[in-house]
Amino acid sequence: MLSQQNLANILWAFAKVAAQPPARAAQAVAEDALHSMQAWSALNIANLSWAFAKLQLRHPRLFDAAEQECEQKLRHFSPQNLVNMAWAFAKVSLARRRFFELLGRRGAELAGDFNGQNCSNAVWAFASVSFVSQELLDATSRRAVHLAPDLCAQDLANLSWAFAKLSRRDGALEETIASQVVQKVHSCSPQHLSIIVYSFAQMLAAGLPQSMPRTIAEDPRLRHLSSIPAAPSANSMVEVILTAALQRVREFDAQGLTNLAQSLAKLEMIKDNLLEALVEEAGPKVKTFTNQELAMLAWACARLGRFRSSVLRLVAKETKARLAELTAQDLSVLVWSFARGEDEEATPAPGRKQDKGRKDAALGAAMLNTLGSTVMRLIHELTPQDLSTIVWGYATAGVECPDLIEAVADEAVGKVASFAPQDMANVTWGLAKMGLLHEELLEVLSRDFVARASECQAQHLSIAAWSFAKLGASAPQLFRALGKALAQRAEELDPQGVGNSLWAFGVLCFWHHPFVQAVGGRAVADASELTVQEIANVAFGLRTLLSWRRQSKDPGAQAEADDLAKLLMDFLAASGGFFCRKASGDGASWTDFANVAAAAAKEEVAHMGR
Fold first, then answer.
1. In the 8-state DSSP scheme, what is residue 348?
2. Are 250 and 239 in contact (CB under 8 A)?
3. Which ranges of 454-556 would DSSP assign to H, the alpha helix?
4. pLDDT of residue 302
5. CB < 8 Å & 24+ apart, contacts of 297-301
6. Residue whose C-alpha is closest to residue 576's, from 594, 601, 602
7. Residue ranges of the RNA-editing substrate-binding complex 6 protein domain (predicted)?
8. CA distance readout (Å), 554 to 557, 560, 561
9. Predicted local confidence at residue 28, as pLDDT
10. What gap in Å lies between CA 118 and CA 134, rounded to an integer?
C-alpha cells in the first residue's frame, strides 16, 4: 500500500503538469485516502485537496474528510497549507461557511508569514465563495503592502479582483497596487491589466466604503454614506493601463476587451480612440465572445453613448445568430443596450451625422422586435430586474409590442413583492409611456408603493405619481401615501421630480395640502433650475389644484385655496422671466404657461372682487 505522502504526491504531480490522471487511478487514490486520512499530516491533506481541485475532480466524500481533518489539525497547518486548503475548496465551489470562518481566523494569525502568492490566493479564495473575513482581509492587506516589491502581476490582479468582488476598499493596498502596476505595466499580461482596471473601476465607480463596520459595509443602500475619492495614484494607474491597452489591443482576448470596455463605462470615461480600437479588434474575435461578454460589450458602449455603427451592427448580427442560447440576464442587458443606443446626453463624436443616427435607431428598434420571441421563451425565468428592464427598454425605444408587454406585465404581477424600488418605478413608468393600462399589475404596484414608500427614493415616488396620472388611474390610497412621503422629502426631488409630481396631482385633482406647500415651495425656491417643460408642468398642476380647491365645500378649503393662490402667484413671478428666456418659440409649453398665467390673474382679480 502506498504511503500518505506517495498518494498525495501522485495526484499533486498530475495537477502540477496539468495532466488528467486516469479516472480509476484518481478514484483509487481517493478511496485509499478516505481510509487513512486520520493519520495524514497537514501538508499531505493540503496537497491532496489542492490536486483534486486543480484537476477539477469534485469528490464530495474526500473534501468532507479533508475538511474534518483540517479542522482538527488546523494549528499544524503552515501558511502555504492553509492557503491551499482555502483555494481548493473555493476552486470546486464548496462554500462551507463554518470552515471558511476557521480558515479566516487562522489565516489572520499566520498572515505575517505569507508570501505574495499566499496573500493573493487567500483573498481570491474567500472572494470566490463570497465570504468576508474582515480580520483576514485586514491582515493580508497589511502583509501585501509590506511585500509590495515582491508582488507579481498575478498577485496584483488577484488582490484587485478579490477586494472589488467583496465590495471592500483599503486605501493603503490600493495605493500599493497602483504604484506597482505603474512600475510593472510592461510585464503585466493583457489578462492581468484588464482584471486590474476592471476591478478598480468597480470600486471607484461604486464609491465602496473604506474601513467600515461590516454591518454598514455589507449594506449596499448605505455605501453612499462613505464614498471616498480615488487616490491620485489610482487615477494615474488607470490612465497608464488604458494607454498600454491601446498600444497592445491586439493581444487582448474577448474577456479582456469586454473588461476594458466595461471599465470605461463604469468610470464614464469617453476615450473614442480606445473604444474604437476595442470594437475593431472585437470584430474578428466575436465568435470567441461568450453571450455574457457580447451583452456586456453592448452595455458598455450604450452606457457611453457609443452603441452605434460598427459595434451596433456587430452585436446585432451576432445576437441574431445566438437567440436560442441567450439567458434571461443576457436578454435584459441586450434589451437595455438596444433601447438606449446612443445616449443623447453623451458627448457627441466628431462628424456624427443625423441620418446615421436614424439608421442606428431603426436597427435598435428592429433588434428589439427580433428579441421579442426570446422574451417569450424566457419569460418565466426573468428576474424582477429583468422584467423591469424589458418594460423600460421597449418603452424608451418606442417599440410597440402590446402583446409582448402584456405578457411581461402578467409575469410581473406575481413577482412585484421581490421588486426593488427602482424596478417598481421602471415598470410603472414603462406602462405609462406605452399607454398600457394593466389594472392587475397597477393595483399590485400601488399597494407596494404604499407599503414601501419609506424604502423608495423621492424620485421613485414622483415617477409613480406621474405614471398613474398619465394613465388616468385614480388611486386615492396611493396618492395619500405619495403626498405624505413627498411632503416630508421634498428637498430630495430633482427639478423633473418637482414638475412631474405637481403635474400628476393636478391631473388627478388629488388634494394633499402638506404636499402642495412643500413641493410647490421647492418649485418657487428653485425656479431658475427648472426647464421650460418643468415650469409649465408646475404651473399647470398648481393652477388645476387651485381651481378644483376653489370649488370644494370642505371646511377650510377656501383658506387652503388662498394659500395655494399665493403660492401660484409667487411661482409665476419667480419663473416667468426664466421661462421667457429659456423658451425657444410658441409650442405647447408656451400655450400652457400663458393660459395658466392669464387664468390665474383673472381668477384672483375676480376672487378679490368677491
1. P
2. no
3. 458-470, 476-488, 495-507, 513-525, 532-550
4. 95
5. 297/257, 297/258, 297/261, 298/333, 298/334, 298/337, 298/338, 299/262, 299/265, 299/333, 299/336, 299/337, 300/258, 300/261, 300/262, 300/264, 300/265, 301/261, 301/265, 301/275, 301/337
6. 594
7. 25-203, 366-485
8. 5, 10, 11
9. 78
10. 17
Cell of 125: 479564495
How many angstroms separate the CA atoms of 610 and 601, rounded? 14
The three grid cell numbers given for residue 575, joined into one nine-digit string: 419663473
pLDDT reported for residue 13: 65
For 540-591, the pLDDT digits (tens) are 999 999 999 988 888 889 999 999 999 999 998 898 877 777 666 555 665 6
Cell of 455: 424604502
Give the phi and the psi of residue 567 in degrees, each rounded to 5: -60, -45
Q: How far apart are CA 173 and CA 199, in angstroms?
A: 13
User: Model confidence over 581-602: pLDDT tens digits?
Assistant: 766 655 566 566 666 655 655 5
Closest by CA to 460, choosing from 472, 471, 448, 473, is 448
Using one digit for the tens of pLDDT, what is the confidence trace for 336-390?
999 997 544 445 555 555 566 788 889 999 999 999 999 999 999 999 999 999 9
> Computed from CA positions of residues 249, 199, 170, 80, in that sequence, does the dihedral angle turn out positive or negative?
negative
Residue 561 near residue 549, CB atoms below 8 Å: yes
Q: Which residues in the chain land under pLDDT 50?
A: 208-229, 343-346, 605, 609
Residue 343 grid cell: 445616449
47 phi-psi bin (left φ>0, alpha ψ -120 to 50, beta other): alpha
Give the CA distances from residue 180 to residues 140, 190, 240, 304, in Å, rounded to whole numbers and listed in that order.
17, 16, 12, 29
Place of cell 417598481: 424
Question: Among residues 332, 322, 440, which one has the least CA distance to residue 378?
Answer: 332
Torsion sign, CA atoms 422, 423, 426, 427: negative
| H helices present in 147-222, as ranges | 153-165, 171-184, 190-206, 214-217
Cβ atoms of 143 and 79 within 8 Å: the answer is no
Residues in Cβ contact with 545 at an 8 Å cutoff, skipping those fewer than 6 apart: 505, 506, 509, 511, 516, 564
* Helices (H), ranges, 213-351: 214-217, 232-247, 254-266, 272-285, 291-303, 309-321, 328-340
Beta-bridge partners for 169 = 210
CA-to-CA distance for 151 and 132, rounded, in angstroms?
A: 23
CA torsion 494-498-503-506 (nearest 10°) is 150
Q: For residue 534, which of 524, 548, 549, 544 has the smallest C-alpha distance? A: 524
- Per-residue model confidence (pLDDT) at position 24: 74
Angle, helices 458-470 vs 421-434, to 10°: value is 20
Query: Which three cell numbers, joined as nine digits, stand for 123?
Result: 483573498
Rg for the chain, CA atoms, rounded: 30
Euclidean distance between the first and the last CA atom of the chain, given in angstroms as a whole number: 111
Q: Do 561 and 532 meet the contact criterion of CB atoms below 8 Å apart?
A: no
- Residues in contact with 199: Cβ distance below 8 Å, sequence separation at least 6, in sequence order: 157, 160, 161, 163, 164, 165
495 in Cβ contact with 535 (< 8 Å):
no
Is the torsion defined by CA of 152, 155, 161, 166 positive or negative?
Answer: negative
